[in-house]
Design brief:
Helices cover about 80% and strands about 0% of the residues. It is mostly helical.
Length: about 300
């Protein structure tokens, strides 16, 4: 393994681990503030910081998207996915919510056919079938205990997969930094509107009072950690390649399980471990199948 590939894998590994650490910080705010307001403030910090960086690096031209419709779609899908996931980890163990979220890559492959006109291979259907079985194993006790609220991470995975498809359609329309800024600038105001609507709804959990300074600090920390994580993943992918980096995503599940156990006393149950193993196996099978297909095409 070359030095470049090795360093790329380490960078990606650090980025994915950092994402789960950020999720753990979000979960510590459960009961302290509205999950809608937490999402809004986190993205306001992120959009502001990334916009400053983009202005310094690219100036005004960096803020001009080629396709406004695609950028709006990306931002809206990310806003909904993040909102649903934040709500999920407020009420569910972190490991379980994270495990279900890993369905999104398989959903992306599955939906690329009807939405992007790509051919969906039999391996995608098979992997998706097994992944859905794993999700069912994880969610069954949660839905029984929480009701429909237990389906929040599944809905989050669906909207995140839609964002990934929009990302494919928008590929090459700007720098990596500008693409992050576009999505944050759309997601932030959407989440602010949703937070205000939640406050006006009268639901106690969604009331937005003046937050404690520690809540503001934690939202800023999550914004910084998430932006840093995405940058590390980008650098890792550039050095090692997307195919090599893909399996590194599963470190999120390990970190989420460890943080959930250490910080919140959420020891993963047998259903969570079994379902997560099925989902990870399906993802690795699809990754291996894709690599074999690419290798076969190169050898022709």
């Amino acid at each position: 393994m070359s030095t470049s590939v090795r360093s790329g894998l380490l960078l990606a590994l650090g980025g994915f681990a950092l994402l789960s650490l950020g999720d753990s910080i979000i979960k510590t705010m459960a009961g302290d503030w509205s999950p809608l307001a937490v999402g809004a403030l986190r993205f306001l910090f992120g959009a502001t910081g990334l916009s400053v960086l983009l202005w310094r690096n690219e100036g005004a031209p960096g803020f001009r998207p080629r396709s406004l419709r695609l950028q709006l779609a990306r931002g809206l899908c990310l806003a909904i996915a993040s909102l649903l996931f934040f709500c999920a980890i407020f009420v569910m163990p972190l490991a379980e919510a994270t495990a279900v979220a890993f369905l999104s890559p398989l959903l992306t492959a599955l939906l690329s056919g009807p939405l992007l006109g790509e051919k969906v291979r039999p391996a995608v259907w098979l992997a998706s079938l097994f992944a859905f079985a794993g999700v069912t194993v994880i969610l069954q006790p949660n839905v029984a205990e929480l009701g429909w609220v237990g389906l929040l991470p599944l809905a989050s995975a669906f909207f995140f997969s839609l964002m990934m498809i929009a990302n494919r359609a928008a590929a090459g329309q700007g720098s990596a930094l500008s693409m992050q800024v576009f999505v944050a600038l759309v997601a932030a105001p959407v989440l602010v509107v949703v937070a205000v609507a939640g406050h006006l709804s009268g639901v106690p959990l969604l009331q937005v009072d003046a937050p404690d300074w520690t809540v503001v600090a934690r939202c800023a920390a999550v914004a910084l950690s998430a932006s840093t994580a995405h940058w590390l993943i980008y650098l890792g992918t550039a050095r090692a390649g997307a195919a090599a980096v893909a399996p590194m995503t599963y470190v999120q599940l390990l970190v989420a399980s460890a943080m959930g156990w250490l910080l919140f006393g959420d020891r993963p149950g047998l259903a969570t471990l079994a379902g997560a193993a099925i989902i990870v196996s399906a993802g690795l099978y699809l990754w291996r199948s894709s690599r074999n297909l690419q290798g076969g095409l190169r050898n022709r």
